[in-house]
């Protein structure tokens, strides 16, 4: 028998929970469908477990700098399998806890949902209908069309395999590759990154990337850019990647190859056509309020939505906006211009707003200041191996256009710039504010 709801949510990650929070508060009936673990990628296979490994890398980094503080320490040894068990133990309650929360907000259906019509979805043979259906199905690693692609593992296995590899190749030099490289390298694994574009982290500010590149190479990470990966072969336990740079062939042999070549939206198995949802195979065509242009009952949020950043706060925000739009009958577009994000290398990259190249391409009249803080009192006190920042300010409005940092507690400091951007606080007002001294935050006033 068909069950009728106000809203069907397909996918129980950040985006789905964003929708459910608002819709539940408004008294809407919800069908909440999840085929794997409630909570989705971020707490089960992404941000949260990843940060446990990053925290260990931080500890190793602190030990490396102990000598500068006149502390004698021996060579540390990381027990990789124990670290993976610590990580797993920290998150093992999440699927059940999030499942319980989902059940408080709606009726839970376990299994893979797919459309059977413009307003109907089937899960495990059960047909559900609703006035509004939200596609919040997340993303998965993009498969590479090369021979031997099946030998690659993904971030899921990096976070699960208790055996520490001796040598690893990352195909792709994006966020996942950079974060796990820093953990592996500090743990003693030899790392090679093969990036197709001329620059690592191609969408980020070039000077900022150059600082983290130098720091990564200092750790022994081998980085090749402008690479064409040709094929992967397996001989016993040894995996070889054949690649070329400027038509010169090279081979690197390792015991693990990680796919770090980006993630694509999970939309292809949803039977979009039977629901009259316009798409190009992956990207669902939506308007500015994230609603399907061809079926007004359908909404898309989070990683399933192509063209907004694949970040968990973005997924939650988009889900909440869609929840509000469904409940109120009037939608709102998302504004991510003041959105901060970090790449959790050690030290981290922290960024908000426009890169210098983007500001130039928009023809904005702006000033830019760059600082290397390793020689500043705070940088020296904490023996920072990299501490660097770039701040962009609009000359007309005196407002921040962007800020990009490596190290110097940028993971926290970046929120000062993000708040200033979101609330249009000028550079002069920022400098006139009170800050505790001496703190890394008080350094922020001297970065521009
Ligand atoms: C290794 C890694 C580290 C990351 N680190 C960070 C970080 O530090 N900070 C940050 O902001 N972001 C990070 N991200 C990105 C972040 O995890 C995602 O942007 C976020 O989880 C997306 O949320 P979502 O709800 O759109 O999708 P998901 O959380 O992936 O949820 C989608 C859910 O839908 C389910 N599903 C899919 N298809 C169906 C179907 N047909 N029927 C039923 N259920 C279905 C899936 O099982 C899944 O649970 C990281 C990602 C990875 C992979
Ligand atoms: N700290 C965080 O916020 C965080 C951490 C991890 C992941 N994430 C999210 O997950 C998403 C996926 O991460 P990711 O690192 O896989 O993707 P990414 O988009 O950050 O990087 C993918 C990289 O692979 C390169 N590439 C693509 N095809 C290639 C090929 N054939 N050979 C060599 N290089 C190739 C791209 O040029 C790009 O630099 C990111 O977009 C990010 O938003 C966020």
Automatic annotation (TrEMBL):
InterPro entries: FAD/NAD-bd_sf, FAD/NAD-binding_dom, FAD/NAD-linked_Rdtase_dimer_sf, Pyr_nuc-diS_OxRdtase, Pyr_nucl-diS_OxRdtase_dimer. Coiled coil: none annotated. It comes from the Bacteria. Keywords: FAD, Flavoprotein. Residues 340-443 form the Pyridine nucleotide-disulphide oxidoreductase dimerisation domain. Its cofactor is FAD. Residues 5-319 form the FAD/NAD(P)-binding domain. Belongs to the class-I pyridine nucleotide-disulfide oxidoreductase family. PANTHER family: GLUTATHIONE REDUCTASE (NADPH) (PTHR43014:SF5), MERCURIC REDUCTASE (PTHR43014). This is NAD(P)/FAD-dependent oxidoreductase.
